[in-house]
Design brief:
It is found in: Cell membrane. Strand 6 and strand 7 form a beta hairpin. By secondary structure, the chain is of the alpha+beta class. The chain is 29% helix and 38% strand. The chain has a 4-stranded antiparallel sheet, with no helix packed on it. It has a 4-stranded antiparallel sheet with strand order 3-2-5-8, with no helix packed on it. It is built from 1 helix and 8 strands. It folds into 2 domains: 50 residues; 89 residues, Sandwich (Immunoglobulin-like).
């Protein structure tokens, strides 16, 4: 038998072996191909959908707080103590019990807007109870109580 015929028979026999394998295992081979293609597509989609860092103009970074506001709470009176409630620079309420009069407290904020509020109630011996809210040296609210027994007074600045 010539060599080229032997080669052709060997090759066709090999093809029969490959075809036999494909006939038996075509479903598992198809699943492997589908899973590989699916994994490739998922990786590509995730890479393209990954969040990119925001584009900013040069020098437009976060700025430091500026334009601080100095808010001074004052409670005046004579003859005793008072219970005080005020808002701090974050808008959180605070209670000061039995504060000796006169009393003052200063806060500093860089928030663009906030409310300043103080309330005071004197004990039985207090007379001439008053309050004042000063923002950057300017008196924004000032009040006095005419009550003679346990006087109460409040000062409010809606927008500092």
């Amino acid at each position: 038998m010539p060599a080229h015929v032997w080669t052709w028979l060997t090759w066709t026999g090999g093809m029969h072996a490959v075809v036999g394998v494909l006939k038996r295992f075509w479903i598992p081979l198809l699943l492997v191909v589908v899973v590989a293609v699916g994994a490739y597509v998922i990786v590509r989609v995730r890479e393209s959908a990954a969040p990119q860092p925001p584009k900013t103009a040069e020098g437009s970074g976060i700025t430091d707080p500026f334009n601080p506001k100095y808010i001074k709470y004052e409670v005046t009176g004579s003859g005793g103590t008072a219970n005080l409630n005020y808002l701090d620079e974050r808008g959180q309420p605070h209670l000061v019990e039995s504060a000796p009069l006169p009393w003052s407290f200063t806060i500093v904020t860089t928030l663009p807007s906030m409310s300043a509020n103080i309330m005071a109630q004197g004990d039985r011996g207090v007379s001439d109870l008053g309050c004042r809210v000063t923002v950057d040296g300017e008196i924004r609210d000032e009040r006095a109580s005419d009550d003679t027994i346990k006087p109460f007074v409040y000062c409010l600045v809606k927008s500092v």
